[in-house]
Structures are given as structure tokens and as C-alpha cells.
Amino acid sequence: MRKWLGLLLVLGLLVGCAQNATERSIQQFTSSTENELHFVYFYDEEPPDKKIRSQLNGMKVYLARKNIIATISYQKIVAEKNYEELLNVKDSQILVFDYKGIRYNARNIHVLEGMVLQMQNNP
Q1: Which of 39, 44, 43 is CA-nearest to residue 112?
Q2: CATH number of the domain encompassing residue 81
Q3: Domain range holding 99?
Q4: Long-range Cβ pairs for the range 95-98 (8 Å, 24+)
Q5: Number of domains in the chain
Q6: What is the mean pLDDT of residues 33-56?
Q7: Is the distance from CB of 65 to CB of 120 less than 8 angstroms?
Q8: pLDDT tens-place string over residues 52-97
Q9: Among the residues of 28-122, which ranges form H helices?
Q10: Which of 51, 58, 79, 108 places its Cα 20 to 30 Å from the Cα of 10?
């Protein structure tokens, strides 16, 4: 009986630590204010090409016209942290963070553009 209780305690601690690591990973990308978004493009080997960067910058300009601050960063999936394990991201995936956490998750830049346009029409 004691072995089972000990095993459950250790298992609970491990699950708690894993959730805490995920929360810390999300917090590093979240914005500090309500009217701010952070676009993070995750990649395996090479950062995105000029076309993708231009489309992301276009969304940033569009949001600025709507008085929403947007920042863009490019994050290698396996660097200091393994974001594939922590956030379950794949190559060329884009996560958009707001002050609460992950707001959008897109594997396609065109889908993300639609999400951002829809967000502005329905706040």
C-alpha cells in the first residue's frame, strides 16, 4: 500500500512539473497588455523565407491600423527548450499569443490571415 502511495505521489509531482514547464514556456511569449499580440513562427532548420516574413509583417501593419500592437519572432523548435514537447509545435507552425496565453494556432499562413481578419470583425 505504501509503495502505491509513494508511486502516486512521485507521478503527481512529475505531472505537475511538466505542466509548470509548459506554462513557463507560454508565459515567455505572452504579452503584457490586452491590446498586444505576439506572433511566433516555429521552425526546424531554417527561419521562414521572405514571402512568409512579408505576410507576417503585413498582418502586423494591418493590426497597427486597428490600434493593436503586434510583435513577430522566429523560434527554433529545439533550442534551449524543446518546444515540440512543451507546446506540441511542428515545423512552420505559427502560434499567436495574447496576454492570456495562446490565442491562435495555425500551420498555414493563409489560415492565420483569415483568423486575424475575423478577429477584428468580431472582437
Answers
A1: 39
A2: 3.40.30.10
A3: 2-121
A4: 95/29, 95/39, 95/40, 95/42, 96/37, 96/38, 96/39, 96/40, 97/26, 97/29, 97/30, 97/31, 97/37, 97/38, 97/40, 98/30, 98/31, 98/34, 98/36, 98/37, 98/38
A5: 1
A6: 92
A7: no
A8: 999 999 999 999 998 899 999 999 999 888 999 889 999 999 999 9
A9: 50-65, 83-87, 109-121
A10: 79
